[in-house]
Amino acid sequence: MAEQPADRQAATIARARATLAASQQLDMGDERAVARMLGRLEVAIASLLDVLDGEDQ
């Protein structure tokens, strides 16, 4: 069965929340981890903007 748009939106929001939670636990002294997290945050923000724009349907 195909995933519904509302399910995809909920999953996108859940992933963004998980990314935010992980970023708050990040060791800011670990430059590689910070760089990876910046990439993850960029993807999360782009995905959330797609949801807001209705492009994930």
How would you summarize what this structure contains?
The chain has 57 residues and is mainly alpha-helical. Helix content is 75%, strand content 0%.
Name the descriptors:
57 residues; mainly alpha; 2 helices
List the helices and strands and how they pair.
Blueprint: H1 5-24, H2 31-53
Helix pairs in contact: 1-2
What do these coordinates show?
The longest helix has 23 residues. This protein has one domain. It is elongated. With 57 residues, it is mainly alpha-helical. The chain has 2 helices and no strands.
Overall geometry: elongated
* Number of DSSP-assigned strands: 0
Report the uncertain regions: none
- By DSSP (H or I, 4+ residues per run), the number of helices equals 2
Average residue pLDDT: 92
- What is the C-alpha radius of gyration, as a whole number of Å? 13 Å
